[in-house]
Amino acid sequence: MGTLCPENLAERADADRWMDWQMGTLWTNLRPAFIGLIRTPAEKRDRASIAAAVRKTAENLAILDAHLIGRDYVTGSSFTMADIPLGATAYRWFSLDIERAPMSNLEAWYERLCARLPYRANVMLPLS
Predict the structure, then answer these.
(1) Mean pLDDT of the residues in the chain
(2) Are 92 and 34 contacting, i.e. CB atoms less than 8 angstroms apart?
(3) Which structural domain, as residue segments, surrounds residue 27?
(4) Residue 44 belongs to a domain with what CATH number?
């Protein structure tokens, strides 16, 4: 199977659950802020929509921050498939010019991702 897909079925299901959460909840809430701040000219931005998206995303990321207590990566001590989509979304979040409340576990996880050469080469690309 490789190292990205956990051999343990419970861990694999947990990774799958977090990937679904990223797509159906986290990205759904972040998308209006990302599109509004990165792809929309300043004069055409819907500030209320962006603010609501930032608030909802921060609430979502607080869930992930709490989950990361005592974990190096989303499913435990090893980098898995769960970290890939969440990591791509985290890059977008941390790249936005917005105020963010501190989330120490999320920030430490993000720093671990940023230290990985494949993450820097494939995810940390210019936003447009």
Answers:
(1) 96
(2) yes
(3) 9-122
(4) 1.20.1050.10
